[in-house]
Task: inverse folding
């Protein structure tokens, strides 16, 4: 008795064929049924294995051909010459069949069905395949009549028009392909530059965090014998570190506007400012822009504004109407602003940070302190009110 071990691929077909094999052995050689059945199984398995291997190989080649055609259609790469010629012949054959079908209704249609063939052959195979398809389509339109009269001057004139239309089609496809290739290269370069920017920003954030940690450790050693002074400095440094961490997280996920303001203004003491507004989640890019503006305003308030005075106060309020966000930064009880210097980087940042969001920033230097109004658009798809 033969020992036939089945692979998982062979087990399925043989289970279906086993009743047929048993019946055939019983009818053809009933006295040797048990010895014939393994032999029949082995032969059928060998046949099935060969056919399956051929079918799998053919399917693999077809998938690779389809992938080459897809890449050619998208303008990523040209298919091999033989595949391009084969695709051009396929387009010509389909166009000829379509022309024969149309000839049953309109026998005078000679070249129109070949224009789509030129289009697809050029889009997949390039200029050479398009020119070849146009020339072959013109010759087929002249030589194959399908019941119409013999070629005359009118058909020759239509041939010239067909070649002219084909030339424009080929030129248009190649022009579009060149533009698409340039845009694809630009997009790839922008992605690479964005990845490089993220790497540099991450490295700068890492170095800044390390410097703040070193500063925190040094001050802790210096002020070890001054616990009261250290208690006032410690929470401010920790708040600054937390602010930098929040901005780093905001760049990828966004945050609530109140959390952003608390993180930025926390180092100056919670009794020095008041926040008024409903919970509002900001998308990542808008949150980063507002974080930069709040940081600039808070720094100026600490140097020259409300936070530089013992009695100075800050009021920040925000409202959302439809998709328009309005933020008011109002300082009071600070030192009076006597002169305003030339516009520096901070002023330029305040003026331009909200421009991508159809917004603007207006700042006024009043006797009571700085008054700043920020207006911008929040995309509706990215507005999430946290209740």
Result:
């Amino acid at each position: 008795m033969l020992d036939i071990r089945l692979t998982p691929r062979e087990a399925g077909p043989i289970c279906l064929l086993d009743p047929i094999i048993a019946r055939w052995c019983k009818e053809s050689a009933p006295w040797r049924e048990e010895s014939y059945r393994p032999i029949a199984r082995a032969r059928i398995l060998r046949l099935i294995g060969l056919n399956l291997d051929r079918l799998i190989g053919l399917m693999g080649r077809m998938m690779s051909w389809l992938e080459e055609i897809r890449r050619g259609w998208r303008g990523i790469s040209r298919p091999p010459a033989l595949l391009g010629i084969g695709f051009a012949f396929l387009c010509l054959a389909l166009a000829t069949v379509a022309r024969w079908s149309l000839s049953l209704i309109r026998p005078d249609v000679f070249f129109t069905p070949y224009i789509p063939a030129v289009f697809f052959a050029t889009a997949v195979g390039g200029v050479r395949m398009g020119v070849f398809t146009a020339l072959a389509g013109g010759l087929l339109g002249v030589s194959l009549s399908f019941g119409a009269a013999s070629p005359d001057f009118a058909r020759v004139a239509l041939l010239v028009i067909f070649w002219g239309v084909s030339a424009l089609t080929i030129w248009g496809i190649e022009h579009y392909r060149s533009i698409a290739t340039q845009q694809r290269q630009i997009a790839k370069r922008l992605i690479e530059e964005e990845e490089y920017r993220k790497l540099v920003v991450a490295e700068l954030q890492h170095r800044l965090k390390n410097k703040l940690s070193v500063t925190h450790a040094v001050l802790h050693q210096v002020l070890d014998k001054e616990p009261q002074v250290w208690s006032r400095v410690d929470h401010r440094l920790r708040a600054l570190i937390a602010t930098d961490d929040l901005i780093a997280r905001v760049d990828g996920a966004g945050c609530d506007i109140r959390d952003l303001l608390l993180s930025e203004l926390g180092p100056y003491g919670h009794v020095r400012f008041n926040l008024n507004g409903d919970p509002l989640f900001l998308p990542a890019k808008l949150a980063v822009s507002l974080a930069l503006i709040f940081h600039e305003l808070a720094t100026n308030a600490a140097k020259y504004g409300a936070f530089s005075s013992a009695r100075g106060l800050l009021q920040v309020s925000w409202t959302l109407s439809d998709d328009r966000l309005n933020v008011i930064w109002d300082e009071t009880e600070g030192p009076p602003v006597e002169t305003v210097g030339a516009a520096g980087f901070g002023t330029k940042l305040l003026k331009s940070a909200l421009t991508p969001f159809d917004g603007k920033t207006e700042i006024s230097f009043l006797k009571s302190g700085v008054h700043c109004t920020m207006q911008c658009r929040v995309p509706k798809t990215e507005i999430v009110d946290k209740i």
